[in-house]
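Researcher: For the record, we're logging two predictions in this thread. I'll number them. Prediction 1 follows.
Model: Prediction 1, sequence and structure:
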Amino acid sequence: MTVLDATGQPVGDKYEYGPFVVPASESTLWLDELEEQTTTAGSVVARPTVYAVNGQDGEVTITAAGLGAYVKPNTGVPKTDLAAAVQTSLGKADDALPATEKGADDGVAELVDGKVPAAQTDMAAIAAAPELSAAIADGLAVFSLGDATENDTDRINTALTACRLAGGGVVYGKPGADYKIDDTLIIGAGTLLDLGASDLTLLPGSNCQMVTNYSDRVPVGTATDAAVTSGSAVVTTSLASVAAVGMTVYVDGAGSNGYGELIGLVGSVDTGAGTITLHKLHGTTIPAVASATVSGANIQLSNVDADVHIRIRNAKRGANGPDSGVARGSAIAGHSIFLRGVRQYSVEVQRATSTAGISFIWPTNASHGTVRLWDADVHRTGVQVVGPIFDLRLYARGRCTDDLVNLCGNVYRDQTNTSGDVVGVTIEDIVNSGTTNGSALKINPCQGNFVDGVVVEGRIGGVRNGGAASRITIMEDIVEEETTGGTCGSIDLGVIDFPASSSGVLGFGGVAIRSLKAHVIGRTVHPVRINPGDGNTTPPVIESVDLALDFTGDIGEGVQLLNYATIGTLKLRVKSFTPSADRSFLRMNSANARVRHLILDTPQITVGRATTVGLVRLTAGTVDRVSFIDPNIVWPVTTNGCVCVLLEGATVGGILFRDGEVALGDSVVRANSGAVSTVRFDGFRHNAGQRLLHSGLATVVHLDAARRIDCTQYALYPQSAAVALTIRGTGAESSGSNSTGNVLLNTNGAASVPYSLGIRGDASVFGKAAGAMMWNTNASLACGAGPVISDGTSWKNLYSGATYTP
């Protein structure tokens, strides 16, 4: 519940809320909330710390329906005026303390720092919640649940309600107890539900959430009259009359390009005009501006619950549904732990099980939180994170029938009543121990939303249990319009390590990504697939991909660019690769795929098995540039097909080998079909391989300051006399063991023309064109050995003037 000062503005303490300063109108509201529980003076336990004026303690007369007038003494509320159930709970809390920790009980619930103490003691003495005891002040309500019963719903909710109305507290379970509920537990601000040593079981047939937060379950108000214009943060609604700064506003259909909710905080209110101006969410950079125009829309006005903490040893949902619905939000009851409109929150579940329902942990419209699911065996999704989300730390381990972790801006319409951006998610680890369908991690920003700042500190890995592969997918879902499209900013997936039974570690489709980084330990058939899949036809546009690849064992295609993909820079840092059954390290075979710059950065590859299809196989699509930077590649043999780049139909702007060395193998570049504009070797050495370039395509070849080229055949090998190579550059020192002694160009070079004196070879083999020049090494020609230039008909020695006409 929002905490207001005497002027109606939010105030904050260490929890950003409190002490509570309550207008008289709200005092009656709070007491009326408890009318169904009690109508005696005992119901003042709901709010015994109400201040008189501007937060000053004093005697207050409180009136509520069914209660009459009750005078709160200046000295405190006598415990005998508290509800009987509360007195019993306080007694149990006292009994649970060591005798040395018990203080004298004066029989009065005193005012202490704006809180109501459950007992005269120090929170630090309660060992059941050691992690929180140092973080909260003395004076919070503390409840020990004791032994479990056949149905513990009411008494747990009674304790949670008392904590909420007292301004905060702790409800903790008895170690080993299995508490059973048939309705949702409702937790409020400043409260810890500590079942860290206890179990929580949802009774059969309950078909509801297990835990949710109060401010979303009990909104300040709802209406069906909201109007807002796309691009605006001003909402017109009758709820302006009850709105206060800091409350949360939800407007259906005004967000996510019209497929979700506009969500923001109340920044200001004009009651005369009946308008609310929205402000961005707490501590975030997420704007609160409509992306669709609506009128007569559903609107909800809620407070924000700060400091909500849930710890459960074993959460058991069983076969409780629902699994699906029709209208938007109709299946929300299928989520086990559902938090909406919270900040400074944490959820920690040691073990979660279910055979029905939808998502086990579901934070949404939440900021500054931690979610840890230590061991899951659940139906559908383990952790579903739905925007708006800001600053989340996450850990998940377990198995499920769908995605283990899903970060998304929206989901299927029946599962949610919230949508927005997801910004700032730190993932400690994701360990998949048997997902049968779906992904270990799925990122789906969805219509009009943005996912940014996702960082994996540890690893994503584990095993799979049949069905779809364990993998990471960044992909739209085309089942509903709500889940298509969207944009990702910076995604750093850390270390990805899946076993050999997996396939397709990375999958992409239909989502624009600004920057993606990962270290992939490949033990799989096809470690990286850049492929829409699932029926997607929208190209994933990715500005930058930076992958460190460490492949072990027999690998199929290490990286596949399939179907539709448009990538700005694809940077691959490779440590090892052993191809299985004639597979390439990278294959691009879609006419719709395009990579502006493919970079193999310092690839250190000892190829474990000969192949006939090359390391980089380009059979279709377009690559503007291919760069091997300082490679160190060693082939096992010189067999045909052991090539670094195999061009078989793609269109390539340029291929560059800069520095480094390739040993053995067939050709460094083999261009059979397609098109390539330039092939450049710069400071590069080919050691004991057959050829530098084997080309069936006309292209420009640059030999620039290359180190020694030792080829067993020819450095440049046109497949036929019709292949025209334009040879430029400063040249290269070449040697070889072929029978002709011309180690640079084979006898098919009639159409290949040199344009540099650094090109050394037999002038009789080269084509001649006006302006062509080279260094002739065949002294038997009429022009003699030395620098020669062509007028298109003859070669002329620049020293002697002697000419040679072929």
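Researcher: Logged. Prediction 2.
Model: Prediction 2, sequence and structure:
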Amino acid sequence: MGGAVQIRLLGPVEIVRDGAARPVPGLRRRAILAVLALRRGEVVSTDRLIGTVWGDAAPATVANTLQQHVSQLRQLLGDRSAIRARAPGYVLAAGDEPTDVAAAERLIRQGTGEAEPALRVRHLRAALALWRGPSLADVADLPWLDEQAERLDLLRLQARRALVEAGLAAGGHAALLPELERLADANPFEEQLHGQLMLALYRAGRQADALAAYRRLRDRLRDELGIEPTPALRELETALLRQDPGLAPAADAPPAPAVAPVPAVAPAVHMPAQLPAAVPAFAGRDAELARLDEALDRGGIVAVSGSAGVGKTTLAVHWAHRVAGRYPDGQLYVNLRGFGPEATVLDPAEAVRGFLDAFGVPRPRIPVGLDAQAALYRSQLAGKRVLVLLDNARDVAQVRPLLPGTPGCLVLVTSRNQLTPLVAAEGARPLGLDLLTPAEAGDLLARRLGAARVAAEPAAVEEIVARCARLPLALGIAAAQAAIRPGFPLAALAAQLRDAAGGLDAFDGGDPGSDLRVVLSWSYRTLSGPAARLFRLLGLHPGPDLAVPAAASLAGVPRPEARVLLAELTRANLLTEQRPGRYAGHDLLRAYAAELVATGDTDGDRVAAQCRMLDHYLHTAQKAVRVGYGSWSSLPLEPVGPGVVPEEPADPAAANAWFIAELPVLQAMIPVAATTGFPGHSWKLASTLSFVFEARGRWREWAAAAQIALDAAQRAGDATGQAHAHHGLGRAYSWLGRDDEAFDHLSEALDRHGARGDRVAQGNVRLGLGFVYDRKGDLAQALHQAQEALALFRAAGFRSGQAVALNNIGWSLTQLGEYPDALRYCQESLALHQELGELQGLAASWDSLGYVYHHLGHDGRAVTCYRAALELYRQLDDRYNQAATLVRFGDAHEAGGALPAARDAWRQALAILDELAHPEAEQLRFRLQHGFSAESTERTGLRG
């Protein structure tokens, strides 16, 4: 298609030729053009075109009708080659920018990638100018095109948001004011929006109006919700009164172009490019590469299988880089962690969420439940050409949620399993990977070491290849060691491989030439002393990976030194930096490290390293819990021992990110500590992680960890540890519905903490007992436990606990019908949580306040409160409480007559409850299917 022709989709469908817009007559003709344009450069089958454009109403002569429409479209485009017939359908020839959609996406990418605000504004304004109205306005009645219209209109909204953010940064506050004022009126309780309005007014020289806007919001919050503005907004008011210089726009900001006044959030367009770095010295695999090339035209799925170390990932990544240009909408990559010693297999839901993050989907838009998330992921891929590399899969169940729903994308899967069900059911093409041929192995060494060096010693090269069993992993390690000793003859390496004895058991195939331990030991002996020591100590770490601070603590060295040592291990191919700052070793390498530390270090050195490692994770976990969840624990913060390099999460987002990265490691540390002489670390880690287990709905894992901790504390005769472990086990059992066992463990914990005189711990246990009583329907006793907890926390001066207890009292009073008193307690709890800045408690207080307002008949206020709670729970990844709040959110909508919104909230809640395998799911499912009063599905359980 010539450069003078463009297809416009951002509005009514039309063609522009030589600068003149030409309408496309006929709904079907416009729809055919739109489908081909949205799948530009990709063959769209005749069946798909007919199904999309005609659906079930297709006449018997539809094939001929389609041909006629295509012929007429070619005439309108002025080029018969613009739409080409290619089996099994048609393809729109893709020029540089054949559609306004392509132009808009390019401009948005340029805009969001610019550092200079004025340039961002320019690109984003140009992109938004391409919209002439609602996208696909005259074909959006067709279902698939309606989905595409929604996607394009969302792109437009995100671009507008990015534009206003850039406009503020560029000093364009004056142009934004009218729309900001309108939005503030439409959203009377959104404090962030009102803060932006205040700042824009101040920058426009309207200080009095800015302060008046604050006062209006403050009065509204007081009068209608009974709360005060957040500390951040109060600080902004103070800064306005002081005329703080920091409020002014940057002095060197250039004059801003006029900016379309729309709400500011995040940039919109993301083209993921997640492929790991390719191996520069790739060799061989010509037949396999040719098989992969065949998949370019067919699309679909290719399943690469083979044994450990055979080079599956190397091949997949190399080929993916080679063809990345054929997939202009991005390349996705994830390590599914299917195999490895003690590895935690990656949950498909986590992989899907990672891909949605890569596409820039805002967290609040990501639904709950794997099925809904996978559906959104497939929607993101619809109409795009994306290469998806799923590395190290355990089984088909891990892979299926990550498969695209429409043609155009290519999925490359690597696994030690053959994934036969994927071949049988999904039509995946299998590609088995064997050892390298001798010629390929020799070529690999030549590429790594130089052709001249290899050609000079053919006999030594032949022996090295044989001794490494043509296994790419072993060859790579041997080549790395030879490369860093360029003055040594290759015959010396061959002799060492020949003369050395022993081998890693898993790779001893009965032939001395396949003894991998020889290669690993030779690699290890080339390390510097400090790097060799760190490599040995890594054998104490349970995996699956570790960060730089953890390695520093394990070795007892500063972080900069740890980075140097890790870099040396990475260069020697004894570690891989799989993500920035996170390192992992192949399972064979970790097994070898474990052998070395058992024989090469003294008992004292091993114990000291293990203690530093456990101290690191315990101290950092305690800090992260305090930052992310509040100071609810009575455990004192562990002191930092010599050589320990803990991490210091700065805010809740950083704390949550740390737990996401480290939770598999932390869970593995609890039994490690229990069985290696560190029972105190075991129960303290389990107690600290209780907040994380509870928030994420991982109650069975919580119970298992608490039981390990209890056993360890009992063996050690540690009364304090037993008390905390009983508390954790009781709380976990209460969430699992094992109320009698929960009551027994919590009662035991209360007695033990009472004997110790620990008021804070007693208060926390009382909250847990209240939870159990509430589940049993003994509301008076639940209220009593919360009141006792409040008294204990006040006696101890523990304000975080007081805030939680106040909220639970308010909840219990609501259950008992004492609404005015309940409102007072919930408002007091909310104010205290806001003062303390504890997001978990703040979310619970918003939730309870919404519940009270609902029972008082103020359902509009209830909805506002529930929205605030949901936003925080999603930020905290608190799965169960998201579901519980969504149920009540739906109740408030139902009471206000908005039944569709109510059912949508309940469906979201059900998806979470199903994912958590929670017994309340069946009750909610029955309600959705049959319908009945909200009063019969009241919330069960208190937070404590």
